Amino acid sequence: MQQFLDTTLGGLVLGAVYAAFALALCLIWRSTRIVNFAQAAMAMVTTYIALTLINADVPYWVAFVAAIAAGFGLGAVIERVIIRPVEGKAELNAVILTLGLFMVLHGLTAITFGVQHRGFPAPVSTNAIAVGDSSIGITPFGILTIVVVAVVMAGLVVLFRFTDLGLRMRAAAFNGEVSRLLGVRVGRMLTLGWALAAAVGAVAGMLIAGGDLVNPAFMDPFVIYGFIAAVLGGLDSPLGSVIGGLILGLSLSYVTGYIGEHLAPLVALGILMVVLLVRPSGLFAAAAARRV
Amino acid sequence: MFAVEDLSAAYGPVKALNGVTFTASRGQVTAVLGANGAGKTTLLRTVSGLVRSTRGSVQLDGKDITRTATEKLTSYGLAHVPEGRGVIAELTVVENLRLGGLHRSTGSEPMPIERIFELFPRLGERRDATAHQLSGGERQMLVIGRALMARPSVLLLDEPSLGLAPRVVAQIFDLLRGLVQTEELTVVLVEQNARSALSIADHGVVLNLGKVVASAPAAELAADEQLRHAYLGF
């Protein structure tokens, strides 16, 4: 029972991070129909920016906000400079570009900061919380992770459901030409979509790095896991991405806890295969009436 | 007044519009007719800046809007309802309408959504449905209602009858006729269905291979048997 509770809590924390990452992928997919393979590398860069600030004695939360702002700027610049020129061309072009970007960001970070592992601080304790004489499988930082991801998600829901800006962004993503005819500045909305996604990715990066070691490759597993979570829930659906992230986090945590850590990647790929075979559009795909 | 003068456009080497000139008066429906490929849709797309014009100009109440960015046209009072019932299928009826009102004609009062539901009671009943759940007729009502949310003075409609049952077409054309009077609209109605279009239009312009071959009061066009056989198919 104790072990079940521990693995479940651990899985929820892990799942929250996957969810944030899947959400970032989903935002970009929805607005530009591109799977952004550079997402992890972009988050890695913003995390390094935060680390540099923290090492220069900037308070943790200021660095946290700076990472989000850096992500926002990086996402906007990448959309304008790198993605915009291939928009409307074959979708593979943009995907290859994001893969290239992944490698470039990797290389640049390694050149600038070195490839050695560095410790990354956490704003709260990363030791398991004690209840009586035993400890349960969650840390204050784990709780913080879940709370932060929940806040980010709630913020996005409010933005997209209840604000005019969110309505413009959704319209631009769903039907660019009609939106332009209605006066929406579609290009600006797509840039904003990338910027928001990268900001969410930056948050995920900070949560993954907290209390752990970082090097330029520390986000790489999330290229795969975030993608699986997003596909599991349906790349089109933000809610689906979040639930996909939680399902993946829990599954991997149970596999790690009960069978063995080494099986986790295999199970993740297994889940991906099953989803692609059985429900290629994901668990929460919108009705099949897209592109009417 | 809405005036198109000598407007030309091309897709690569193919001339799609060749010196099209006509005017559409306030409070009137001007039908643009012609066979498939005559350039009707291209005409509207060029006016909206979705296709670049190679020559000519478009004037709206004396203002030259030829090179104005597509996104700015609603603020000048021009609404373009594209072919194929351009609802945004993933958004609800209310969201589609709200979107239409976000960038309205400069200086105009916001249009209450309830007013659209008075015009199209059917939409009010389905306000929270997503647009892809709507029937063809409901979608056409939605795109017209959405265009009205921007308080346009000129409404460009591309084939509103496409794929609709004759009864629904008649209903929508009736509504349109009423709107022209109550809202003081200038309507440019592109139609393949020439017979229905001429029945509500004041003026007709006939295109063939990107050129204007006839421009006359609607009744006159409808009475010209030769023209009807040659270009209008009835």
Greatest chain-chain contact = A-B, 23 and 29 residues
* Contiguous uncertain segments of 5+ residues of chain A: 287-292
Please name the CATH architecture of chain B: 3-Layer(aba) Sandwich
Q: What is the domain total for the residues of chain B?
A: 1
Largest sheet of chain B: 6 strands, mixed
Helix content of chain B: 25-40%
Mean pLDDT of chain A: 90
**Cα distance, first to last residue of chain B?**
30 Å
- Helix share, percent of chain A: over 70%
- What is the CATH class of chain A? Mainly Alpha
Tally of extended strands of chain B? Answer: 10
Radius of gyration of chain A: 19 Å
Topology pattern of chain A, helix = H, strand = E: HHHHEEEHHHHEHHH
Sheet with the most strands of chain A? Answer: 2 strands, antiparallel
Describe the structure.
The complex is a heterodimer of chains A (292) and B (234). Chain A contains eleven helices and four strands; from the N terminus they run ααααβββααααβααα. Chain A has 292 residues and is an all-alpha fold. Chain A has a single domain (2-126, 134-278), classed as ABC transporter involved in vitamin B12 uptake, BtuC, CATH 1.10.3470. In chain A, the strands form two sheets. In chain A, strands 1-4 form a two-stranded antiparallel sheet. The termini of chain A are far apart. Chain B is an alpha/beta fold and 234 residues long. Chain B has nine helices and ten strands. In chain B, strand 7 (154-158), helix 6 (166-182) and strand 8 (186-191) form a beta-alpha-beta unit. Chain B is globular. The mean pLDDT of chain B is 90. Chain A binds chain B through residues 164, 167-168, 170-171, 174-175, 177-186, 286-287, 289-292, and chain B through 48, 50, 70-75, 79-82, 86-91, 95, 98-100, 102-104, 130, 132, 146, 150.
Topology record:
The complex is a heterodimer of chains A (about 290) and B (about 230).
Chain A: H1 2-32, H2 39-55, H3 60-83, H4 91-113, E1 118-119, E2 130-131, E3 134-135, H5 140-162, H6 164-174, H7 176-181, H8 186-209, E4 213-214, H9 220-233, H10 238-259, H11 264-278
Antiparallel strand pairs in A: 1-4, 2-3
Chain B: E1 2-11, E2 14-24, E3 29-33, H1 40-47, E4 53-60, E5 63-64, E6 78-81, H2 93-102, H3 113-119, H4 121-125, H5 136-148, E7 154-158, H6 166-182, E8 186-191, H7 194-200, E9 203-208, E10 211-217, H8 218-223, H9 225-232
Helix pairs in contact in B: 2-5
